[in-house]
From TrEMBL:
The keyword Protein transport does not apply. GO terms for molecular function: aminopeptidase activity. SUPFAM superfamilies: alpha/beta-Hydrolases. Residues 82-278 form the Peptidase S9 prolyl oligopeptidase catalytic domain. Pfam families: Peptidase_S9. This is Dipeptidyl aminopeptidase/acylaminoacyl peptidase.
Amino acid sequence: MRSMTNILLLLTGLVSAGWATISDAAQETVTFSVDGQNVVGTLEVPDNIKRPPVLLMLHGYTGNRNEWASPAVKEGLFGRGARVLAARGVASLRIDFRGSGESGGKFEDMTVDSEIKDALAAVDFLVARHDVDSRRLSIVGMSLGGAVATAVAGRTTHHLSSVVLWNPGINLPAAFTSLYGEEVIKAGLNTGDHPLEVAMKGSSKTVALKSGFFKSLYTTVPAAEIEKYRGPLLLAVGTSDSIVFPQPTSAQGLLQYHHGPNVLWTRPVDHGFDVEQRADTVDQLIEATGDFVLKYAHQGN
C-alpha cells in the first residue's frame, strides 16, 4: 500500500503533467458568414459538461486561429490553450479572421475594422449556440487581436464575463511603425486600393496591404474602447516585448482607462511570451488565463 507521501507525489505529478490527461474535448470546425464571406473557426467543447463557459480567441497580425506555433509549442498558443482550458471545463472558439488561415477573403483587404466585425459576429455565433453558456462568455486577444478584443469589449451588446489581453496592441501606429518604418507607413496611407507589398524590418517575407489597413491603425484606439468596458480585465505583457513597448508602462497606461477590476500580469519575455525558445512561460500564461476566466465565470452563475 502506498504511503500518504507517495500518493501526494503521484497527484502532484498528474497536475504538473497537464489537465489534458484528465479530460477530453470534442473539436468541431465551424463557419459563419460576414459580408458574404466565410469565417472559419475551431469550437472545442469539454466532454461531459453541460453548457460550459466559453472563451473566444482572437489571433494576431498575420496569424491564424491556432496562433503562434513553434518547435517548443507545436500546437500554437491558442491550440495549446484551448486543449488545456477544455480540460479545466472551459469551451473555446478560435477563429481565422477573414484573409487569414482558412477563412474567406484576401489578406490585402483586411483592416482592424474588418477584424472587429468578424469578432463581433463570432460573439453573436456563440450566443446562438446551445452547447455553451453564453452568459459566461469571455474573450482573449493576442497582439493585434488584443486591440480587436478591446473594441469588442467596448461595443458588444452581449454580456462578457471577462476579457483577457495577451501583449495587446495598445498604440497601433507606434507598433506598426516599429515593425515597418515610418516611410512604409506613409506610403501605405497613400496607396489607396492598390495593394502595397511590405516587409517587416529584418525580414524578406512580404504581405500586401491597402490604405484601408493603415488608416484603421489610427481610427481604432484601444484605450477609448476599453474605457467603455466595466467588467474584469486581465492584461498579460512581456517586459522584453520589442513591438509593444515600453512595458509595463504601456500596459499601465491602458489600465488607467479601464474602470473595473483588473490584473496586470508581467513576465520578462518577448512579444510571443518566449514561445520560440520554450513553453514554460506560455503554460504559466494559459494557467493564469484559465484561473481568471473561471473565477469570473463562477461569479456570473
